[in-house]
């Protein structure tokens, strides 16, 4: 059976090796180059095209337009047709129904 001091020494060496391995690891910056997108002066980083050329759309752009404006249209339709659940409209309908039940004109 190993002695207590040798176990502590092994434990300490393992801890130092483990922390040293993690301290040199760089996850996001990859160790070289700028750490952010350098400003180019162009809108969205796209250089202007020569005269007479059209910009080519990327594959995701049409999906984004349909999804964004389609969801806005759907939200507008749903808001327009949403049921009226306010307390004021309920009270007005209830008052009219009670007045008609008593024979009075609302």
UniProtKB/TrEMBL annotation:
Q: What is the name listed in the Swiss-Prot or TrEMBL entry for this protein?
A: NADH dehydrogenase [ubiquinone] 1 beta subcomplex subunit 11, mitochondrial
Cellular localisation: Mitochondrion inner membrane
Self-association or partners: how does it assemble?
A: Complex I is composed of 45 different subunits. Interacts with BCAP31.
Species name: Pycnoporus cinnabarinus
Major location category of this protein: mitochondrion
Q: Does the keyword Transit peptide apply?
A: yes
Q: Name one GO cellular component term.
A: mitochondrial inner membrane
Q: Which residues cross the membrane?
A: 63-81
Q: Which InterPro entries match?
A: NADH_UbQ_OxRdtase_ESSS_su
Q: Which UniProt keywords apply?
A: Electron transport, Membrane, Mitochondrion, Mitochondrion inner membrane, Respiratory chain, Transit peptide, Transmembrane, Transmembrane helix, Transport
Q: How does it sit in the membrane?
A: Single-pass membrane protein
Function of this protein? Accessory subunit of the mitochondrial membrane respiratory chain NADH dehydrogenase (Complex I), that is believed not to be involved in catalysis. Complex I functions in the transfer of electrons from NADH to the respiratory chain. The immediate electron acceptor for the enzyme is believed to be ubiquinone.
- Family membership, please give it: Belongs to the complex I NDUFB11 subunit family.
């Amino acid at each position: 059976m190993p002695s207590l001091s040798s176990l502590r020494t092994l434990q300490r060496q393992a801890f130092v090796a483990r922390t040293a391995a993690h301290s040199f690891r760089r996850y996001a910056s990859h160790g070289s180059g700028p750490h952010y997108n350098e400003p180019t002066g162009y809108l969205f980083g796209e250089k202007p095209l020569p005269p007479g050329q059209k910009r080519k759309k990327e594959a995701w752009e049409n999906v984004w337009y349909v999804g964004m404006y389609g969801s806005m249209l759907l939200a507008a339709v749903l808001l327009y047709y949403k049921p009226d659940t306010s307390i004021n409209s309920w009270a007005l309908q209830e008052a009219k129904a009670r007045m008609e039940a008593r024979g009075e004109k609302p």
